[in-house]
Amino acid sequence: MSTMTLAGAINRGLRAAMDRDPKVVLMGEDIGQLGGVFRVTDGLWKDFGPDRVVDTPLAESGIVGTAIGMAMRGYTPVLEIQFDGFIFPAYNQITTQLAKMHYRSHGAITLPVVIRVPYSGHIGAVEHHSESPEALFAHTAGLRIVSPATPQDAYDMIQQAIASPDPVLFLEPKARYWDKGEVDESRVASQLDADGGASAATAEMSRGRIAREGKDVTVVAYGPSVRLALQVADAAAAEGTSVEVVDLRSISPLDSDTVVRSAKRTGRVVVVHEAPTAFGAGAELAARVMEQAFFHLHAPVLRVGGFHTPYPGSKFEHDYLPNLDRVLDAVDRVMTH
Amino acid sequence: MDAHGPLSDQGLVQLLNRHGERLEDERFSRYAADLDLEALLAMWHDMTVVRAFDKEATSLQRQGELGLWVPSLGQEAAQIGAGHALRESDFVFPSYREHGIALTRGVDLPEILRIFRGLQHGAWDAAEHGFHLYTLVIGAHSLHATGYALAMDRDGLVGTGADSDGAVLCCFGDGATSQGDVNEALTFAAVNNAPIVFMVQNNQFAISEPTTRQSRVPLAQRGSGFGIPAVRYDGNDVVASYAVARWALEHARSGQGPVLIEAFTYRMGAHTTSDDPSKYRSQADESYWAERDPIARLETYLRAQGALTDDAVDAAGVEAKELGRRTREAVKGWERPPAASIFDHVYAEPHATVEAERAWFARYEASFADQGVHA
């Protein structure tokens, strides 16, 4: 075990994946000498060279599109989109090409492309640097979307995403990049070295986890909101409410089984994410909980998230994003319904 | 016609004119030097085969057997010329009208119609034929082609002088040159010296819009801004089409980087069977280009050389008829796979949402079977 930041854990995970497979190639803007604007690829250019850590032209569609062609010849491109709000020039390549090639080719072509995206807010940034676009991609079949909340998951899941034969959108909670935690580097290594490692890795990164057990309310979160959900659990406990926290980890597939099992125990569900609630992951989860656990519910499923406005100027982001008070308010409402 | 515009026919490389006469070109004749009469007959054969197939497919659409068809009529020389310049070690990224190149890559032509009958989105093994699946989003594949070319370079398949050297041929049309993806592909290919030939078939129309809506200069001129050598040629001349494509592919295969070639041609048919060209172009225009038919001029030349006999023409007619029969039978004979197959190959590894929906659909279908309503 060693202590790492979440960003450092991704860096270590990338390094391990590149050591494991010479076909893994990193591509993105400023990821080489600079090490990326968040320094997630720091040191990799120096150690692996410019053919393995490629500074691309400044064109997101070009990054994803050329990665598709490289993957067709057996490479595993791991792309960095510099910021969430800059992924949209590549939206067509991701949704009409990357996501659909396996289907279009009847399984003959697999595209093991990983797209790393620093996402979500709370960093006081200018426009297009704080968004949470996961729902826009989750609607597209053929993509997997995961988001780690801890350094351990970041270390494991980046390698599992790279090992997966499917395209994966790997959403990195940028405000959590500097959170520290203990990381065991041996477990994912033995998983990937074993026979069927890629399948096991894909299955594991697609499952959520119970981040804290509780019995009164299930608070579901992922990525940057997991820490908030745990703070909510602490605060609620002080008031006598026992909160169970589910860290989804995966948005596509959405591990609703874990949520439904928890909902059947607690009878109350609050979903938290930074993305707008309208048509978001929480809406999908609420529908599934209603379909599968309706008669166990003591209260309607509530959502806490961003509003149906553009991401506002950073002086407003603490009002726009879910915070402790807004989630506690939702917990109170499901408890008193 | 603006002599400097994108529809100008000035300054095109031409080795076989519309009267069926061979011409010399200082730069490109030597790339056609290996084309003996036998080779030209083989090209003529392929051009007639793909035209016959195209005609049959159009009929099948009119009869309601296909949802749509995309005719290649008029573009046979550009496609067959390029196709014959390819090596097995090359890889083609077509757009969706490259039925002629498909033929030269060994794709059994009727198989293409699985797409247009609505059975599947891709109908051949791309790796087996060195011919990628058709891409319907205009220009999107130009980036895949560039990435594929860069991977060939990484794999040591470029510039070694060995027969294993290869290049990518990426096909798109005049409309695609306005797409961001095509411009990004030219950028990525240029800065990385990718072994790729970008082949624009300027058939003068993006559905109804003439090339003047895409550019104010000939499309080949786009190359210079990217630092990519470019050549513009008569795309209805199969000899020039072969020679220019051969030059371009050799350039790319030998590690000298990307090339842009523009085949100036004419879409003699409609954009698709849903289109009506009479809304946007004149009969006179169509007649002008009918006189420049790519197959007719080659026939004139081959007959003048005594290489094409009535017997050979008759034999080709019989073959075309047989292909038509085989195509009709194939199309009408294909069985639709079970509906549940729509859940196959969405992902390479199981995905919970797909599996849940697959299971629900199976139960739903089984509920009809219980009632004896649905087989």
UniProtKB/TrEMBL annotation, chain A:
E.C. no: 1.2.4.4
Ranges of residues in domain Transketolase-like pyrimidine-binding: 4-179
Cofactor(s) demanded: thiamine diphosphate
SMART domains reported in the protein's UniProt record: Transket_pyr (SM00861)
Pfam families with a match to the protein in the record: Transket_pyr, Transketolase_C
Keyword Iron attached: no
Keywords linked to the UniProt accession: Oxidoreductase
EC class (word): oxidoreductase
Domain of life: Bacteria
Molecular function per GO: branched-chain 2-oxo acid dehydrogenase activity; magnesium ion binding
Biological processes annotated in GO: branched-chain amino acid catabolic process; response to nutrient
InterPro entries per record: THDP-binding, Transketo_C/PFOR_II, Transketolase-like_Pyr-bd, Transketolase_C
Keyword Oxidoreductase belongs to the record: yes
Protein name: 3-methyl-2-oxobutanoate dehydrogenase (2-methylpropanoyl-transferring)
TrEMBL record, chain B:
Alphabetical list of Gene3D superfamilies matching this protein: 3.40.50.970
Reported cofactor(s): thiamine diphosphate
Pfam families the record matches: E1_dh
Top-rank taxon: Bacteria
Keyword Transferase: no
InterPro entries linked: Alpha-ketoacid_DH_E1_comp, DH_E1, PdhA/BkdA, THDP-binding
GO biological process assignments: branched-chain amino acid catabolic process
UniProt-recorded Gene Ontology molecular function terms: magnesium ion binding; oxidoreductase activity, acting on the aldehyde or oxo group of donors, disulfide as acceptor
Keywords: Oxidoreductase, Pyruvate, Thiamine pyrophosphate
Boundaries of every Dehydrogenase E1 component domain copy: 47-321
Transcription regulation listed as a keyword: no
Protein name: Pyruvate dehydrogenase (Acetyl-transferring) E1 component subunit alpha
Natural source organism: Demequina lignilytica
